[in-house]
Protein: Dihydrofolate reductase family protein
Amino acid sequence: MRKLTYFVACTIDGFIGDPKGDATSTYSYVMGEYLEFLKTEYPETVAAPAWPVLGIEPGTPHRHYDTVIQGLGSYRIGLDAGVTSPYAHLREYVATRSLIESPDPNVELIADDLVGRVRELKAEDGGLGIWLCGGSTIAGELIEEIDELVIKTYPQVYGSGMPMFGAGFEPRDFTLGAVRAFDNGVLVRTYTRKR
Ligand SMILES: NC(=O)c1ccc[n+]([C@@H]2O[C@H](COP(=O)([O-])OP(=O)(O)OC[C@H]3O[C@@H](n4cnc5c(N)ncnc54)[C@H](OP(=O)(O)O)[C@@H]3O)[C@@H](O)[C@H]2O)c1
Structure:
């Protein structure tokens, strides 16, 4: 059984971006000790075009994930900039009902039964975990399938914005695992879903 992990960046008040999802205000925190942590502990979550820029060697082993799932709203950001396979080093899945043909051979589109397809991926033997990249909409749709959260909290408050989950109200319990605090105020917490 493979884990589905929502590895996501958010503000102190739990927003993954402004009301449209833009989180560029947090980028200035991706530096120093925290950036080194991301490069060594989660290199596979760095978009492929940024590997050479950040000095991540080609072929750097993945630590946690071999598969990524994102919604079209998230995938479209790269696509509009001409990046058809932002995580070319991973198996890439994009949930969409409007995009009919995949723009890239590495990207498989999921149009029907998103939950069922994710359950099939989770049921595969071996391999690493599945990274749920976001955004808010598909995280809300997959909320009951999420086994783990890795939340990168940036020391900013938005007041309003795009929530971590586009889901209805229901308390769901998680167990706190690793906690890492960085000198620039970023906090990375891992939680496991209590079943
Ligand atoms: N802070 C972070 O770490 C982080 C991470 C990821 C994304 N984000 C932000 O999140 C924003 C995007 O979030 P979002 O909520 O607007 O969009 P999203 O969740 O990325 O994508 C939503 C789209 O996914 C498709 N979809 C949703 N449910 C589906 C289902 N059951 N079956 C098939 N397709 C389905 C639909 O595409 P169709 O319309 O084609 O049907 C829907 O419009 C971006 O601005 C991005 O920057 C932030």
Summary: The mean pLDDT is 97. The domain at 4-193 is CATH 3.40.430.10 (Dihydrofolate Reductase, subunit A). The chain has one domain: 4-193.
